[in-house]
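tool=predict chain=A
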Amino acid sequence: MATRTTLCCLLSVLVLSVYLSVVEGLFQRCYSCRSRGRLGDCKDPFRVNSSSSVVPGVEAAPCVSGWCSKIIEGKKDGEDHDLATERQCLQRSPPDDKPRCSEALVGNKKVFICFCQGDLCNSARSVGPSYLTLTILAPVVFFLFSRQQP
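tool=predict ok
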């Protein structure tokens, strides 16, 4: 049977994890950049992450909508210099509020576009916004349960 102290600690951890999820949701950013072919740091593989130092031409810009995009123009099977990659914040969320990737027509150009929701989600990696909470929560829970006596 859990002691009162253990229950209080678990409740505190739960409140902290909810708080971190809410705070994390308030500060949405998207990578903002554009590069063509071998030039620039916006192309895939995208070597920038939230802990990277300043990379010229790549910005982690605030995004009010919380929705980011990555657009690839040009033929993937063509020459590398034909490809252009752009990462940016969407002004509005997609009509169905669902993250996805698909081919689309923008003007008369065929592009491959991905929409995602979450802080810096338009990198090549897919990192969910709840990983910060899990990273902090897991060691605390482990510590609390390791202190319990059988």
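Residues 4-26 form the longest helix (23 residues). The beta strands are 29-36, 59-62, 67-73, 84-89, 100-106, 109-117.
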